[in-house]
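fold-stage: in
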Amino acid sequence: MESGMAQNIYDSSDFFAGYSQLPRQVHGLGGAPEWPEIKAMLPDLVGMHVVDLGCGFGWASRWMREQGAASVRSLDLSQ
């Protein structure tokens, strides 16, 4: 990796193989025990422009669009 480039454990094939089998990745937001608390803190998203930093598999990004967000930009450091 080039000097100055961020390193990301999620891009390791061995790590990702295990990570992708976690309940939150297999079942989406329903598999994330913290989701009800996070969801309760979010405002009404209708018409909003949202950025999902560290979006991972994009479960929250998809949910935000379903809630009526005008746009969702999903960014993640991992490939």
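fold-stage: in (second)
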Amino acid sequence: MKLIRTVTALACAASILSACGGSSDDVGKELGVTPPEVHFIHAIPSAPNVDFYNNGHILQANLAYKAVTNFATINTGAQTFSYASVNTTTQLATDSTISNAAKGHEYTVIALPDAGFLPSIAVIDDPFDKGLLSTSARVRGFNASANAQNLDLYLVAPGASISTVSPTMAGVAYKNAVPATTQDSLYVSGGTYQLIATLPGSKTPVYKSASFDLGNNADWLVTTLPAGNALSQVIPNKIRLLVAQGGNTQTPAIELPDTQ
């Protein structure tokens, strides 16, 4: 009987969420009953295509710069993530920090340039605590800019002044996320926005995007990268901004142009 009641509750919740524009997959994540999922982002400019590995096996193959894979189901328990150039088995970077992948969680693995443009890796654990009836967009910032190692990010209405407002994501340190890994994403209403980056505590932009639409139920990881495509082109605090969109369809990252 308990199993029947649980199944009935899931079916009812899925029906309600679907009517509000969400998905039954969101219901399972919120209730912590779906297997953990992972997707991969290739964020190394001018790098070759790579294969993404999970526990020593290729999970998603032949990924180009800006590729954002669809979510793939993984087992619970310890996870080792890595990537290698296509047609090789030499891992360029490896991460084994996830000791117990949890049901209902989303994991993001990012291939990014380290200082000197050497390959590096980062992993974000997202517990996905979105309310069943929420249609809000989810947003998180990540700093992959070795040339701008601490940034404040503002998500504001187009043309709005940031002189009297606090950063939406403050103190985004190099190779770190805000909100931090293991914390839930920020929730904002869908609408038209602009992203502005400054150095910590400053109100002078080092980056200012054009306006863009952030839809209800969107799931965005905003990632900063060095603006140049090679080490010789890197200028301190000069960045580009990629948006990786979560979901169960493969969508390349969007690069938001700097309007400055």
